[in-house]
Amino acid sequence: MGAQGKRVPRAVREQQMLDAAVATFARRGYRAASMDEIAEAAGVSKPLVYLYLHSKDDLFTACIRREAAALKAAVRAAVELDGPADRQLWSGLLGFFEHTAAHPDGWTVLYSQARTVGEPFADEVAAMRAEIVEFVRGLIAAAARDADCDDGDLAEREVAALAHALVGAAESLAGRALGGTAASSGRENAATLMNFAWSGLANLMDGRPWTPSR
Amino acid sequence: MGAQGKRVPRAVREQQMLDAAVATFARRGYRAASMDEIAEAAGVSKPLVYLYLHSKDDLFTACIRREAAALKAAVRAAVELDGPADRQLWSGLLGFFEHTAAHPDGWTVLYSQARTVGEPFADEVAAMRAEIVEFVRGLIAAAARDADCDDGDLAEREVAALAHALVGAAESLAGRALGGTAASSGRENAATLMNFAWSGLANLMDGRPWTPSR
Amino acid sequence: MGAQGKRVPRAVREQQMLDAAVATFARRGYRAASMDEIAEAAGVSKPLVYLYLHSKDDLFTACIRREAAALKAAVRAAVELDGPADRQLWSGLLGFFEHTAAHPDGWTVLYSQARTVGEPFADEVAAMRAEIVEFVRGLIAAAARDADCDDGDLAEREVAALAHALVGAAESLAGRALGGTAASSGRENAATLMNFAWSGLANLMDGRPWTPSR
Amino acid sequence: MGAQGKRVPRAVREQQMLDAAVATFARRGYRAASMDEIAEAAGVSKPLVYLYLHSKDDLFTACIRREAAALKAAVRAAVELDGPADRQLWSGLLGFFEHTAAHPDGWTVLYSQARTVGEPFADEVAAMRAEIVEFVRGLIAAAARDADCDDGDLAEREVAALAHALVGAAESLAGRALGGTAASSGRENAATLMNFAWSGLANLMDGRPWTPSR
DNA sequence: CATGAATGAGAATTCATTCAT
DNA sequence: TATGAATGAATTCTCATTCAT
Question: Average pLDDT for consecutive 10-residue bins of chain D (214 residues)?
Fold first, then answer.
């Protein structure tokens, strides 16, 4: 039924299947997406999907792994390693927003679907997220060192919180961007976050955080 | 089999059912939760659930509406309307974090489940979210006016972005708090965000945002 | 589709389902029998079968248990407990052959199907068989004591072998009777076996077994 | 993946396939055994199995025929044709028990699986069985003639029954031997049956069978 | 107010079998 | 001689939903 010719080598077919699966999972969610639907979208029969990907769970896991790897690769590739720390963070954020904008289905699967389905999948995504948070934390810490040599370890805990909040905010903005509502560009989103992060960082380093004390 | 006595008035039964449904939807997700499971958790027979709540969709909608209303009410009740703007924002955030921590299932249903199931439900949640974003935006704008009379409308667009990012970050932190990983208290989370918001706001008002230009 | 009226109480429906299942398993074998087929034969829809009997495995187990219980009950009821040992054995064999002839499907399920499907089911049948063998062994031993007081324990091992062979031969004859080939009556079969058993027993007691020594 | 080299002559490959099929059918049953499993066990690809053996049914039939032929050959070869009738029967039984013990999978396929799958296969086995029964009947009749010239045809019917019971008991004992429970040797089993058969025969010839008349 | 009995529709998964090379 | 690629047709099992009482 698909337009593809027959007799395609396995590696190629597998990618076609993963493409179809990512699109379908993104649109319908893990549970609502049926293997029939995915097979049809891939232009193959259901048994072939099972022959190559073994089960719905395995298929979903393969999707998550592929998309997570692609996202991580995109971010790493985007970072300008030889610039100053703020420049590195900026380029990483830009890479993140551009990749998620270019692969909305992948992002949806990772962020919206995989996290809500439960144990085995959520863990996979949590691991990827932890990697990214750590990466960002390193950049922020480096930036702090660049700007202010002494007092670096004082902010240890705050730097971690900042990294977490930054990643959370980035995810949130990426989600908004896909929502179609506000077609905010990747540059805009990245700039917003830099403002966030950099000023928060400055306050922290200056030792004058906002407090509820009044 | 239910432990409840028979002949319970309708209003009470409905709340029991909604309680059971929220807990079940939170634990298993919309699709994976079965009406059997929910009826059993509520201690009633399935036909009674249908008699009162009509269908799975309607039941889920009722859950979303109830939890959204409760969250909005909690936030509004927490805001100290007569204080300065930063104090208002602080108290609202605190209310938000305390309510979501006290009602993790409700938060999960709203944030994780309802958004991923698709059209009719996601819209409902989006509307609630929009209300909250608007509320926050108002507070930030007021704070800006408090601090700096002129030049207010210049930042119009940035203020909206800031509100969005703030809400996104709050959601992200609330999600983390439920994850059990970092048992960050509501106070901590609220403080982190105030730092974020206030310093970002200060930069914006001072007209010196971070830019990638270097 | 079945001719039965609707709204039948659960206990009754369950028996109807077991009847249909026994007949179907007997005719087609465990694997080849489909739940669709069984449901149709029972005059109900498939989901009802699952609601009451939970799974194909459980259904088969229920069949085995019911038929095994019925067979054991029939044999025990047939034995004339107050007669001499040979009379008891005779009446038990007669009961066995009459029950298996009257319930050919049950016998087929127990004997042909359950034993070939593997672990969980075969064990169930093996247990029933062991009970019957032990029962027969007791009768033979009693008969030996009746006839000849001394030397009883010498034959211990041979008596067990005899009991086993007798049950095996009985099963074999019961199988033949169902095959439709030789419509041998229960009386004939029982008599054949009594001849077997009694003369073998006599030889054993006389201490002159056949030996290959020449 | 198979360890065999390529380009094996057809006759050899066929035997490899039949070996694998017999083992697989014995372990899993006809329905539960899959062609994939068999092909893998044989170390060849599935299309090759189809090329040589045409279909699952044909493959099973080929298994039955091969194993039946082997069993019959083993029994015939074991019989000492020039001895007295009881010696012939003894040696035949010994051959039977030794062959089935040496080829448990073949015996399982013939006895447990083929008989329960239904029509086309059961007939094949029934035919083999009939041959063996007839062979045994001949031996018993000859033995009767040896011992007692007159009155031979009186027992005609009983001799047939005796042959049937003997074969049935032999099958039962062979089955037990595979069960692993009682590691009864072939000699023991053969001796048990000779005792059975010979004494039953003696009683019949003496015209004093056991009767329920008392 | 409340439920035991029942089902149509669809889900994941497996299997025997074939083609093109 | 031998196989990687591919599928139509079941099969087991679940679920939202309704009726008669």
Answer: 63 96 95 96 96 97 96 92 86 93 94 83 88 87 69 64 82 76 74 76 64 53
Do residue A47 and residue A79 come from a single domain? no
Q: Looking at the domain assignment, is residue B16 inside a domain? A: yes
pLDDT tens track for A88-120: 888 999 999 999 999 999 999 998 888 888 778
**Rounded to an integer, what is the distance from CA D36 to the centroid of its chain?**
28
Q: Is C60 contained in some domain?
A: no
Distance (Å) from the alpha carbon of C155 to chain D's nearest alpha carbon: 13
Query: Does any domain span residue A214?
Result: no
Q: Which domain holds residue B105?
A: 64-205
Chain-centre distance for alpha carbon A169: 12
A2-53 pLDDT, tens per residue?
Answer: 444 578 999 999 999 999 999 999 999 999 999 999 999 999 999 999 999 9
Q: What token pair was written down for D192?
A: 């048990």
Are residues A145 and A197 located together in one domain of the fold? yes
Do B148 and B87 share a domain, yes or no?
yes
**Domain CATH code at residue A75:** 1.10.357.10
Note the CA–C1' distance, A42 to F4, in angstroms: 19
The two tokens of residue A130 are 């932890």
Number of domains within chain B: 2
Q: Are A38 and A76 contained in the same domain?
A: no
CA distance C163 to C166: 5
Residues C86 and C148 in one domain: yes
* A26 in the same domain as A71: no
Structure tokens that stand for C87 in this block: 């009379």
Note whether residue C129 is domain-resident: yes
The reply to whether B198 and B149 lie within a common domain is: yes
> Looking up tokens 């062609």, which residue turns up?
D35
* Rounded CA separation D58/D35 (Å): 12
**Helices of type H across D43-84:** 46-53, 56-78
Span between the terminal Cα atoms of chain C, in Å = 68
Same domain for A130 and A68 = yes
Give the CATH number, domain containing residue B26: 1.10.10.60
Rounded Cα distance between B156 and B153, Å, is 5
- In strand F, which positions have an atom below 7 A from any protein CB? 1-21
Q: One-letter amino acid identity for D128?
A: M
The CB-based long-range contact list for A154-160 (8 Å cut-off, 24+ gap) reads A154/A207, A155/A204, A155/A205, A158/A204, A158/A209, A159/A204
Tokens of A18: 């993963």
Distance CA D130, CA D68 (A): 12
Spacing of B11 CA from E4 C1' in Å: 24
Q: Any atom of strand E under 7 A from CB of D131?
A: no
> In terms of DSSP H, where are the helices of D44-185?
46-53, 56-78, 85-102, 104-107, 114-117, 119-147, 156-178
Give the C-alpha separation, A63 to A26, whole Å. 11
Domain termination site, one of D32, D54, D76? D54
Contact A175/B162, CB-based, under 8 Å? no
